[in-house]
């Protein structure tokens, strides 16, 4: 197995994990019923609440992010779900609804575009009472689009009895998000993206409204029953055996994030995104070739950029990723249909501007 040197791993998840976080996982395992886990869960809560921007408790789930996406569908809709779709991961909420036989519709835009508040208002107003849950992705990792979640939530609040669930898997900890202030009912994320933890944990918080809705739903599933999470988090525990080693790592990361400061962290991510966008524009200008950014201007994620390649027949996304790997760097190919014609750079987690500059210099050599 080739070992990638630290500072060179730029996938948009999983992201690089710095050594002290890996070391935190080597603490002795503790039981999941009793004072040790209660101390650990209790210690996690202040940092998690700050991360989510909520006064509500934050659930710790031993699953990947998709588990909590399922929870949103099975626990929060009694009528019909409206899934805002702008790429592969936002499509997943719709696919989950179909998988559970729950009524759902899609409000889709093209890949690279964002879901807009005015489109949402039009659909919700067309038949008031049709939907009781809207799902939206914050940072669409397949395209690098950042949806205007705050504005979309404000539209949802114009209507009675509709909840909004936000997939913040590749945004939380890297892009501003304030659950309570923005009126979000369910926010979920995964450990392995902007939080820079190893994969294996999902985190989520539910509003009081969301919990009231879950209480009114008879069949919420079992492993991802939010009422079980709610009950256990009040006792500083989890419904089933949690990945305690990952929770030790999470505790360590929350301490490091508190030292950095959330606003500073958001600015660092934005600066890396701005630099990547400027680099693509320079590349296009200097080479005279049609490089581009997949995400529409004004809707670009601070954590991931998908770069369009000018001549995929000659040099495709997989070619670029393979050549970068030969140089000891990891970037992602485009996602799904965009695989041949783009690459994706994950500038999130613990990456620094210096590391990003080194990556872009290597990438420029490969591309030109
Ligand atoms: N949502 C987004 C935006 C993602 O980027 C991903 C994973 O890449 C997921 C959901 C699915 O998360 P997981 O792979 O942790 O289940």
Architecture overview:
With 368 residues, this protein is of the alpha/beta class. It folds into 2 domains: 240 residues, Aspartate Aminotransferase, domain 2, CATH 3.40.640.10; 106 residues, Aspartate Aminotransferase, domain 1. The chain is built from 13 helices and 13 strands. The protein has a 7-stranded mixed β-sheet with strand order 1-9-8-7-4-2-3, sandwiched between helices. It has a 4-stranded antiparallel β-sheet with strand order 10-11-13-12, with helices on one face. A two-stranded antiparallel sheet has the order 5-6. The longest helix has 26 residues. The relative contact order is 0.18. The site of pyridoxal-5'-phosphate (PLP) has 11 residues, from helix 3.
Brief description of this entry?
This protein is of the alpha/beta class and 368 residues long.
How do the strands line up in the largest sheet? 1-9-8-7-4-2-3
Helix content bin: 40-55%
What's the mean pLDDT score?
98
For this structure, what is the CATH homologous superfamily of the largest domain?
Answer: Type I PLP-dependent aspartate aminotransferase-like (Major domain)
Radius of gyration over all CA atoms, rounded: 20 Å
How would a crystallographer describe the biggest sheet?
7 strands, mixed
Structural class of the helix and strand makeup?
alpha/beta
Q: How many DSSP helices?
A: 13
Q: How many structural domains?
A: 2
User: What overall geometry do the principal axes of the alpha carbons give?
Assistant: globular
Whole-Å distance between the termini?
29 Å
Q: What is the count of β-strands? A: 13
């Amino acid at each position: 197995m080739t070992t990638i040197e630290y500072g060179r791993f730029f996938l948009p998840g999983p992201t690089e994990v710095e050594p002290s976080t890996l070391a935190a996982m080597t603490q002795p395992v503790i039981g999941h019923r009793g004072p040790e886990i209660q101390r650990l869960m209790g210690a996690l809560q202040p940092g998690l609440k700050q991360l989510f921007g909520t006064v509500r408790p934050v659930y710790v789930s031993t699953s990947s992010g998709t588990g909590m996406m399922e929870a949103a569908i099975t626990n929060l809709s009694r009528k019909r779900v409206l899934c805002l779709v702008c790429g592969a991961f936002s499509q997943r909420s719709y696919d989950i609804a179909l998988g559970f036989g729950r009524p759902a519709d899609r409000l889709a835009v093209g890949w690279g575009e964002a879901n807009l508040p005015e489109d949402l208002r039009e659909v919700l107003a067309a038949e008031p009472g049709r939907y009781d849950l809207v799902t939206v992705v914050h940072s669409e990792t397949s395209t690098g689009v950042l949806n205007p979640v705050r504005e979309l939530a404000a539209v949802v609040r114009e209507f009675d009895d509709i909840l909004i669930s936000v997939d913040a898997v590749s945004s939380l900890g890297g892009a501003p998000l304030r659950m309570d202030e923005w009126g979000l009912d369910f926010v979920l994320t995964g450990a392995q993206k902007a939080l820079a933890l190893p994969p294996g944990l999902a985190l989520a918080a539910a509003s009081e409204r969301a919990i009231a809705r879950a209480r009114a739903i008879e069949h919420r599933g079992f492993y991802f029953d939010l009422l079980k999470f709610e009950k256990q988090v009040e006792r500083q525990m989890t419904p089933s055996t949690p990945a305690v080693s990952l929770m030790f790592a999470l505790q360590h990361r929350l301490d490091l994030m508190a030292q950095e400061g959330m606003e500073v962290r958001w600015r660092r991510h934005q600066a890396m995104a701005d630099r990547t966008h400027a680099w693509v524009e320079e590349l296009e200008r200097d080479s005279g070739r049609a490089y581009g950014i997949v995400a529409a201007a004004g809707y670009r994620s601070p954590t991931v950029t998908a770069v369009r390649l000018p001549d995929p027949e000659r040099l495709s996304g997989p070619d670029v990723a393979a050549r970068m790997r030969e140089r000891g760097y990891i970037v992602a190919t485009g996602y799904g249909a965009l695989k041949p014609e783009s690459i994706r750079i994950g500038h999130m987690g613990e990456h620094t501007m210096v590391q990003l500059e080194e990556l872009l210099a290597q990438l420029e050599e490969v591309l030109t």
